[in-house]
């Protein structure tokens, strides 16, 4: 994590404030957001403690011309909190009346489960396949995801539990669908035996940063037919909407997604999913929502031969190489017939060109058989 002293060197912000944020378990991205926000005041050419209400009004108007509402809200909130800290815990007059639109603007589009699967199929690297599934199913914040280490994943008979350290402290998240790709990636990981190694390893050997994760996601989406604007946080939004639609209660949502106990985010996602209104309208028509309707789609492919759970994209079992669907079974039969044909051709070639080799082969096989039988008879006596 970046040192607050280093972050404060090129910023208007005081390092003591950053140390306070760090002591309160704020992430590195949060610290950087505060630096960026306070530095927007540089256009006023004044020290933060000397700002007037007129200065802030002019600054706020300038933000409206350049940034989206959500970005404006971020900058204003950070500046207000920083100036409050500078003023001994009270908002100074310059920001007392500064209005901030904290309306939660959720994405107009979310990814379907089918689109998540398309993305994993388009990913060339095992790391990226595992990362997409883990990001979606765990519902982690992107910053939490990239900080995951080998020790944070614990496999068990039901799948795996992921330990996440976020804004509200540590929490455990149950994952099932991610497990085959996650297990495969960790088995391939150059430092898979090191509990302290970052799971999402970059080409340079460190952990993959948020910017790299975003770029990877963009490249993968370009290979699909998905026309939506996809970014790391959309995987979290999509998962929250899907779970809300399937009836996960608000207390469970807070636990899974790391929201504060008094957060209204679960109710926002329930509203976005339309769960309550859907059930009410269906009931008016006498249509009862069954328990199976509320079950999540399961993409893990279980091998009928050995019971091994495979990645949703696998055609053949990763454990026993058995076919996982009729089409793959047909491919297996075709490959067997093709190999049998090659063996027959090879035998014909040897008979015609090296007949002695055939005789020697059968004679050697008979000698081996006789020696084996002799060994067995001696063992009995």
What distinguishing features does this structure have?
single chain, hpI Integrase, Chain A, 3 domains, three-stranded antiparallel β-sheet, two-stranded antiparallel ribbon, 17 helices, 5 strands, elongated
Describe the structure.
- It is a single chain.
- The chain has 381 residues and is mostly helical.
- It has three domains: 4-96, Orthogonal Bundle (DNA polymerase, domain 1); 113-292, hpI Integrase, Chain A; 325-381.
- Helix content is 55%, strand content 6%.
- The strands form two sheets. Strands 1-2-3 form a three-stranded antiparallel sheet. Strands 4-5 form a two-stranded antiparallel ribbon.
- Helix 3 (28-39) packs across helix 5 (69-86) and helix 7 (113-122) packs antiparallel against helix 8.
- 23% of the residues are buried.
- The model has no long low-confidence stretch (mean pLDDT 84).
CATH fold call of the largest domain: hpI Integrase, Chain A
Dominant shape: elongated
CATH superfamily of the largest domain: Intergrase catalytic core
Kindly estimate the percentage of residues that lie in beta strands according to DSSP. 5-15%
User: What is the name of the CATH class of the largest domain?
Assistant: Mainly Alpha
Helix and strand pattern? HHHHHHHHHEEEHHHHHHEEHH
User: Biggest sheet, open or closed, and with what strands and sense?
Assistant: 3 strands, antiparallel
Which stretches are poorly predicted, pLDDT < 50 over at least 5 residues? Answer: none
Distance between the termini: 73 Å
Integer-rounded radius of gyration: 30 Å
How many domains, as an integer?
Answer: 3
User: If helices are DSSP runs of H or I spanning 4 or more residues, what is the number of helices?
Assistant: 17
What's the total number of strands? 5
Average pLDDT figure: 84
The CATH architecture of the largest domain would be Orthogonal Bundle
